[in-house]
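Lab meeting tomorrow. Please check the following:
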Amino acid sequence: QVQLVESGGGLVQAGGSLRLSCAASGRPLSDYAMGWFRQAPGKEREFVAAISWTGNTTFFADSVKGRFTISRDNAKNTVYLQMNSLKVEDTAVYYCTASDVMPPSPYLGSWGQGTQVTVSS
């Protein structure tokens, strides 16, 4: 079983940037497709971005397309989410997931504990 730890969240003004990291341990990151989901208060968990095992395929939610990028460094067992031009509506807890399927399912796989991203106006 892989363990995931997210970091990099925080408070940022609208229009700013953050880079989230997800460090994996216990199993090689290359064993998994990776994804990011987010959950805002009172809302369901929603898909943000995903990247395939080798990084040659990525998917993004329409709401973040053109603003967010996802990347991975299998040698460092880390996946990243670069978030630019942040909006207030991006405020949520962001979760990293390791999945056997692509794109990852919100109901399966291994999950981190989440990192809070707050975007102020």
Observations:
- The mean pLDDT is 96.
- The two ends are 40 Å apart (CA to CA).
